[in-house]
Amino acid sequence: MAQGRLNRDQCFEKLAEMEATDLKKALWTLYWRGAAPLRERIEAIIDPQRAEVPDRGVKSPPDPGLVVGEVTQFAGLARSGSYLAGDRRVSRQERHSGGTRSVDSAGKLRTRYAAMTSRQRVLP
């Protein structure tokens, strides 16, 4: 268990000693200062009829063809030494960023490709 945290029983013991107004104040503090998911959970408990699944701006999955094309293009440029040799196909910022941009791009593409391929697998 995390250090400094109460377990469920300890928490309930502490809450049993509190007055209703103190409990409301504690809940309000969590609601007001907490992150959006916490506020949504509290709202769902307070008003279950109003509870909706919020649109958190989750992006749609990337187009598989586009991802494969980007990975192929990046790999081809990297293999040909374009990031080191000053090739015009690679921008100056990508060349002079110490390789971090190309590494970041590769990491993002690898993550997107892995996510895409894991969704396509059919489990027995």
Tally of individual helices: 7
Gross geometry? elongated
**Mind summarizing the main beta sheet?**
none
Spans of at least 5 consecutive residues with low confidence? none
Taking the alpha carbons of the first and last residues, their distance comes to 36 Å
* Helix-and-strand structural type: mainly alpha
Share of helix, binned: 55-70%
**What number of structural domains do the residues give?**
2
Beta content comes to under 5%
How many beta-strand elements? 0
Provide a descriptive summary of the structure in words.
By secondary structure, this protein is mainly α. It folds into two domains: 8-46, no CATH class; 64-120, no CATH class. The protein is 65% helix and 0% strand. The protein contains seven helices and no strands. It has helices at residues 8-16, 20-33, 36-46, 64-79, 82-85, 92-96, 100-120. Helix 4 (64-79) packs antiparallel against helix 7 (100-120). The radius of gyration is 25 Å and the shape is elongated.
